[in-house]
Amino acid sequence: MKPHIHQKRRVINPPYWLKFALKGGEKGEKARLGISLEQVRLGEKVLYAAGKDERRPPAARGNRAHYPRGEMVIEEYAALDAVVEQSFIVTRLPADVGAQQAAPLPLVIELALQTDLKPVVRAQQAAPLPTDAEGIVFLDGNDQEVLAYGRATVRDAAGRETTARPALEGTRLSLTVPGEWLAGATYPLLVDPLIGDPILVSGGPSFSGAPAVAYNPDDDEWLVVWKDNGNGNWDIFGQRVSAGGELLGNNFAVSSLPDDETLPSLAWDGNSGRYLVGWQGWGLGQRVWADGTLDGGPIGPSASANSPDHAYGHVSGIILGVGEIYGDVYAQRYAIPVARFTAEPLSGTAPLAVTFTNQ
């Protein structure tokens, strides 16, 4: 089942809250999720409390809904193609909150959930295995993920950014912006989580983690790579994902060497139409064609590099790979060869004999 979010919302008063439908499955079963803002506070100082300062009505235009919340907070929703974007704007701080505070105060946004779905902290699902994923997922009656509520990006007027991680207590959801970051913030500031249906890229009895992704603009799709221990040691696997969120083909092995390969990274080379995938391990990499087939065998230096990363130079056509080796940082340039051709007349003038070589 691949659910999707309808671009339909309804405002109910009082209090104002957002309600949207999820639909999926062969019979088009629906599940509903309601989200209402209960409180926004700075430490113990309340900036907004539901029902106490609702002097201005909400407004909806197109795919957006706009909720003024008192004098200092604005709540907005936008229904996009595959997600609902929720955002909170804190326009300023109260006049009686300032530099006299003994310690930086966190900003806490508290929400109430109304739904038949089961909210679960994503990390709890992976226990006892570790996970790199954070956030809240909503499960249906078959314990399948229907919806995800991820970490929020926080940005101030000067362009500084941090993240606010969601926390769940029963049917109450909260987002906390660290006080240390707020101490240097320029207002207004934006708290911007995303609500959307998750795409299961890799699932099963083995553990998958440390994902990385690169975009292929020529075909408008992504390649996702990750580490997986399904073969008894850590290998690197990949999966193509379309712009519409569909999986293209099946999971495939990028590298299954006898030793462990972890922490993959990758870059798209638009010059050759291939990805270069690297990983932490025996310092190797693998070229991958846009359709997911491997181009030859592993390549790279003979030293084990930690924490690798790769970036493509669009002007030079060179991929730069970096990594840490015995406490030092090294870089290596990779030029993925492209198909070349030569042409010469068979006799006199045309026709030409054209020879292609993949160098």
Number of DSSP helices?
A: 2
Distance between the termini: 44 Å
Q: Mean of residue pLDDT?
A: 76
- Radius of gyration (CA) equals 25 Å
Tell me the strand percentage band: over 45%
**Residue windows where pLDDT falls under 50 for at least 5 positions:** 1-17, 23-28, 124-133
Tell me the structural class. mainly beta
Helix amount: under 10%
Number of domains: 2
Structural shape: elongated
DSSP summary, beta strand count: 29
What characterizes the major β-sheet? 17 strands, antiparallel
Question: What key attributes describe this structure?
Answer:
3% helix; mainly beta; four-stranded antiparallel sheet; 17-stranded antiparallel sheet; single chain; Methylamine Dehydrogenase, Chain H; 359 residues; disordered N terminus
